[in-house]
Amino acid sequence: MNNLPFTIVGNLTRDPELRFTPSGVAVVKFTVAHSPRKLDKESGTWVDGEPTFLDCTAWRGLAENISESLSQGNRVIVTGTLRTERWETDAAEKRSRMVLDVDSCGPELTWATAKVKKMQRSQGNQGGPADDPWATASRTRPTSPTASSAGSTRGRSLGPADDPWTTTVKRPTTAASSTGTRHEDEEPPF
Questions:
Q1: Helix (H) or strand (E) holding 145
Q2: Which residue from 67, 109, 111, 161 lies 20 to 30 Å from 143 (Cα-Cα)?
Q3: Residue 103 pLDDT more than 50?
Q4: How confident is the model at residue 4 (pLDDT cuts 50, 70, 90)?
């Protein structure tokens, strides 16, 4: 598969929106606005150019860390894989948008400071609580009976049970032990 790596530097347009899938996997959505600055030669001042808005999605531990660390207006550097989402409206109009599947994200430190705090994660049942559901969690997304044999939801309608943006799921009481890396067979249920 040909992935298009992409990096954007910009500001968060609102607080990251953290949700959990019915199986308890964290997913966060946020939008980054990039406004190029250019020198207006007539006035000698810097002015904002036309802004670009990019929707971003991150999964698992990365999703939780983004939600806990960043807020509206923060300047960030985000890297990931750029892809196009296509769909058709009820009126049969074709629509599309660019989405960044986030691999890494952090504050941009030109005009700000940040204090890095390393996350403490349990190591499975070795030293961690025996009832920690994240310590033994699978890194693959469960497949539904209506999904294709590859486990993908591409090409099928997602029901309310698949949508973490409309389904309320209680967050586990312990921190996630997996990374924020998104796997090929996963896609955002929104």
A1: none
A2: 67
A3: yes
A4: confident
Among the listed residues 10, 15, 11, 16, the one whose alpha carbon sits nearest the alpha carbon of residue 28:
16
Contact 76, 70 (CB under 8 A): yes
Query: Tokens 């670009």, residue?
Result: 52
- The three-point CA angle 97-71-12 to 5° equals 35
Q: What is the pLDDT of residue 86?
A: 93
The DSSP secondary structure of 30-53, one letter per residue, reads EEEEE--EEEETTTTEEEE---EE
Residue 18 CB partners (closer than 8 Å, separation 6+): 26, 27, 28, 63, 64, 66, 67
Beta-bridge partners for 129: none
- Residue 55: name the closest of 19, 12, 4, 21 by CA: 12
pTM over 0.85: no
Model confidence at 162, in pLDDT bands (50, 70, 90)? low
Which runs of consecutive H residues, i.e. helices, occur in the chain? 60-69
Q: Is the pLDDT of residue 169 over 50?
A: no
